Amino acid sequence: VSRLGPGAEFDLIRRLLDGASGHHPGVRVGPGDDAAIVIGENIAISTDMVVEDVHFRRSWLAPNEIGYHATAAALSDLAAMAARPIGVLASVAIGPGDETDFASDLMAGVIEAADAEAAILIGGDVTRSPGPLVLDIVVVGDARAPVLRSGAAAGDDVWVTGSLGAAAAAVTAWLQGREPPAAARAAFARPRPRTREALWLVERQLPTAMIDVSDGIAGDAAHLGAASGVRIVLQAAAVPVARESELALAVAGGQDYELCFTAAPGAVQRVAGEFSSRFGVPLTLVGSVEAGAGKAAGAVVVDATGEPMDLVAFQHWGRA
Amino acid sequence: VSRLGPGAEFDLIRRLLDGASGHHPGVRVGPGDDAAIVIGENIAISTDMVVEDVHFRRSWLAPNEIGYHATAAALSDLAAMAARPIGVLASVAIGPGDETDFASDLMAGVIEAADAEAAILIGGDVTRSPGPLVLDIVVVGDARAPVLRSGAAAGDDVWVTGSLGAAAAAVTAWLQGREPPAAARAAFARPRPRTREALWLVERQLPTAMIDVSDGIAGDAAHLGAASGVRIVLQAAAVPVARESELALAVAGGQDYELCFTAAPGAVQRVAGEFSSRFGVPLTLVGSVEAGAGKAAGAVVVDATGEPMDLVAFQHWGRA
After folding, report:
1. Which of A315, B38, B84, B150 has its CA 20 to 30 A from that of B118?
2. Residue B177 CB: number of other CB atoms within 10 A?
3. What is the least distance, in Å, from the CA of B130 to any CA of chain A?
4. Helical axes B63-80 vs B182-189, angle rounded to 10°
5. How close does chain B come to A305, measured CA to CA in Å?
6. Using DSSP, how many helices (H) and how many strands (E) does chain B show?
7. What is the pTM assigned to this prediction?
8. DSSP label at A86?
9. Is B49's CB within 8 Å of A212's CB?
10. What value of ipTM does the predicted structure carry?
11. Which residue of A35, A83, A130 is in closest CB contact with B132?
12. What pLDDT does residue A98 have?
């Protein structure tokens, strides 16, 4: 049970949370009780907090886009586990000047992003904030055949879906006082979690390890490498850079919400064309997995001559 | 995957989240991957957000108490469903001036409160906040035999565990510039979710509807009444008021985290003594359920003559 302050906006959001419609076979108890109840064998749960002026600025996004962005980003973690989304819980701390419309528009964006991945709103909390707007989005899914970060083996290929760097290009433009290109703006405001793509790949038992690209592929591949006790070598020249972006942003920019996964050598090549035509999303071989336990575990981006590139030079990019 | 800003404190919290030790038979994948995975038939999930200067002030609580308070409050929602706790996810937005010690002490409080209810830390997120400290605590439990808010029937008795108003007495003292009595302070800083008590009652199939008392028993009973389509009549003289408190705070103060439940008339009386001696917590008959659908559904507090009392007069109490 939440402890609310007074005010019409809270009543409204509370009604939105409690009265959210929508049915899902995995939901036994939806919003409006002390907890939601979901049904499933392996239930995957992840939580992702976004804070105004840390992850976004209000001037960049419409209220419904703030809700959409945060929810899609959180759902991307379920895709990275190959979990089928069931429900979303949204905790929202609303700033002092926020109008009722702002809050309900924000929740509409949360519900829309959930709906796009066949999930429904099953709960949440709402409170005041004396400062920034804060959203914490909890996502719940059915992970019948979860893909962990720890399964990569030396010799595996490394793949990435889609193209990278568009969202970071939008952030960079905003930070420089420019309006971003429409495609870059959309990549940031309304990311597409790769839910169906992940399930398709897992049905074919292809990924040995998987992560979503939220902090830039270099950093996220390093998490994969560390969890698997291997060294992931990414070829800079192979990284699929979004048209609106550039290599530095594609490698270290973040907020792409594509999937980076490893697979047995040669296994994915035969289905890459089918994947691309089915989902309208390229599948790109970006590197390989080498042995490398302990301190060597992680990831490195190499240039055409095989020399490791200086990632520190990329680090200032694309951080909101 | 969270998108972190730079800084040693984030690395530390991230390590705390990723490396949290602890085993639980209900946890298949713990912290450190894109999502946690829990195992169970009916998985209950609830989320509870606390914001500095809305729900607490830093001057009131030590950092580990801030974490403990928030986590115990969230776990109380699982008790209200009669769910057995499994895991906790903690999303934390840390203020600009916070030291590394502050953050790790806070997480230690989260872990301690989880441990007290036999749950383990299974995930979370950490980010900067340009303003207040914000915690969103997600609790996950196994609700084999959930008790909903909607099962109360006319004729049922209404019961409450423990005594009410102590936490609100602490808040009132702080707001008036006084140091609260030790017992009141402890009630606020380290609430005890009634997990075992709820499971014991449900084993005996006693509660027909249940809620935790987080907003004051008048308000929470009203939620029960509304969900069940009945009118709950609470006897003011029967409300168990904590020694450090008074009736107004016990009725409308909030943050008690006791359980309010309905049961068939006469059913609980025969076990109330056993309950009290087993848990060291009184079980008090505070009212009854009357028919009352539609606008009449809700709750009312009546005085010794049966006259409804004016709850608005209580409303300014105990709100942090």
Report:
1. B150
2. 6
3. 7
4. 70
5. 31
6. 9, 12
7. 0.93
8. E
9. no
10. 0.92
11. A130
12. 77
